[in-house]
Amino acid sequence: QIIDKYGRLNMVNLVGWHVIFANGISNRDFRLVEGVIKRIRGVTDSPLFTDTGGLAAFDEEERRLLCKVYSLFDILSVNEDEVLQISRAIKAGARDEFRAMHNILKSLKRPSTIWLHSLDYQASLSTEYGQKLLERAQVAAAAAGVYRVEKGVYPTLGRLTKRMKINNFSEKGLKITRHATKKYGGKIGAAELVVTPCCGARNFTSTVGAGDAAAAAYTYAIAGGEL
User: Fold this and answer.
1) From CA 71, how far away is CA 68, in angstroms rounded?
2) Could you give the C-alpha distances from 28 to 4, 24, 57, 136, in angstroms and in order?
3) SS3 per-residue string spanning 40-87
4) Residues with Cβ < 8 Å from 92, sequence gap 6 or more?
5) CA separation (Å) from 143 to 68, 87, 99, 165?
């Protein structure tokens, strides 16, 4: 219905697996999700994005099934804990978060891009998108998240663009960015690696919705949206 009304989609975001599967996930659940994804891909060729969520509350079989769900998507969003948990769940040890991202890209069939976000820094590892686009997406995500924290509302595109020009970076984020750049350069294997520091909030209203704002800005930018 949305495609009929507005035309081709630039990106499809499907999130909330830990709400849907709060009481566990079965093979039947996975087949249901797989069927939904196939139907979506049958009507649009746009990339599919999802937020993975942590695996700590699930048993080994449920973690395996959740990883199969994640493998149906093109872009995965993770935090520092989640990326290591997924790497362990697919039986791929990692020395750090960046190697864990690489392990996931190698092990899961469909994903082309992993986006790691934290309070201090962001990182993208991608076989699909170039460094300039990934960096712009991360700057947009950081600006959108911190705007939501500062103002308690979601930014318009105009306000988001202005907030992207304020560079009060996290000192910890700058340190991690410099270390990752020195260690890996701009690639891990064939995948492009971009690490950027996040902005510090100038005042505080609420963190509610900050992650949603950041994810929306990231996917908008990476899909070619103008900022």
Assistant:
1) 5
2) 31, 11, 19, 39
3) HHHHCCCCEEEECCCCCCCCHHHHHHHHHHHCCCCEEEECHHHHHHHH
4) 100, 103, 104, 106, 107
5) 32, 29, 26, 9
Reported as a pLDDT band with limits 50, 70 and 90, residue 5 is: very high
- What is the C-alpha to C-alpha distance for residues 57 and 62, in angstroms, rounded to an integer? 9
Please tell me the distance from the alpha carbon of residue 209 to that of residue 187, in angstroms, as a whole number.
32
For 6-54, the pLDDT digits (tens) are 999 999 999 888 888 989 999 999 999 999 999 999 999 999 999 998 8
CA-to-CA distance for 116 and 35, rounded, in angstroms?
27
Q: Which two tokens stand for residue 114?
A: 């992993």
pLDDT classification of 172: cutoffs 50, 70, 90: very high
Global model pTM greater than 0.85: yes
Q: What's the pLDDT score for residue 201?
A: 85
* CA 44 to the chain's CA centroid: 21
Owner of token pair 């962001």: 122
In the numeric block, which tokens belong to residue 128? 């699909």
Instruction: State the pLDDT at residue 167.
Output: 82
155-160: average pLDDT: 94
